[in-house]
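Researcher: Re-running this chain for the archive, since the previous output was lost when a drive failed. Same request as before.
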Amino acid sequence: MSRVILPVDRLEELWRPGKVRVGALLHGASVNARLESTLTILERLQAVGMMELRALFGPQHGFLATTQDNMVEWKGYQHPRLGIPVYSLYGQDREPTLEMLEAIDVLLVDLVDVGARYYTFIWTLFLCMKACERAGVRVVVCDRPNPLGGLAVEGVSQREEYFSFVGLWPLANRHGKTIGEVAQMFQREVFPRCDLEVLPMRGWERSMWYDETGLPWVMPSPNMPTLDAATVYPGMCLLEGTNVSEGRGTTRPFEMIGAPWVDGEDLAEALNDRALQGVRFRPCSFEPTFQKHARRVCHGVQVHVCDRARFESVLTGTVVIQVLWREYDEFRWKVPPYEYETEKLPIEILVGRSVEEFFGHRGDVRCSFDDLAEN
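Model: Regenerated structure tokens:
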């Protein structure tokens, strides 16, 4: 039996609105502790007259989490069994339209976040709250654990001029909040007239990593296969803003990074010489099946977290980029577009400020997050 009891584990007990028209924002990881899908639970509530399910919504990677690569849009469709619309919120529309919301009174949200600003599910929630505030639709968020725990916060908030779909409101790279706490922050700071209810968990403590909750790990997106990947993601996702592979197209995304022109042994030695806490770097080679350098052998390193309590993912990702930038003439910043931003560099919307401010000149100066936070 899991130590943490999710709202969807006892939704029959928590559901209070009565028989209302409901829309549900879900994805492939929307399951309870017994691996029963949230959609199945909602259908059961509908069968006993506790709600009327009228629409479904899905975030990036699709309602069923089937779009493998990032930045791949998907189109809505009619649910083949239920006969209700499944609306895409990662395509032509990222914010629900009034037409999508007119058939519902309540939007229930049950998404698995991984605790990093760039993971777009919280920004889909942000835009849903915006639209529901305008339309007078109630938002009910099923809280879930932050897989990385709720104590550590890493990095800095982005500047307003760098807001994007990987950060529409100020938030640290690793934010330390549950998705319910994120929703409450959005209501408090941005959407005060949004009718929000957060359904609570039982048994979750802020010190818990996901593997201490007793809950099964279900991939929230195709390139988040394990808790190990989520652990390094807040920092290693920054590689998405470069021409270095972040390991997409391998079985160890975000844990393995490299490029055809990198010397893995030299890179591992340079990174290990930095004596970063809780981590070691091992030379490795890999061949991505898609995305950057697809079907080409890449050389680089695998990130081995030895002590996750001491490991600082954002600092690690920053240092990895600084070393690559300094040591390899082939290193380049990826150019737009990226996550619907067409002008600013992808790395700049990921870090939330200019390259020069965050990294220093050609990686010669190590980033001081304390200094950045003060400015």
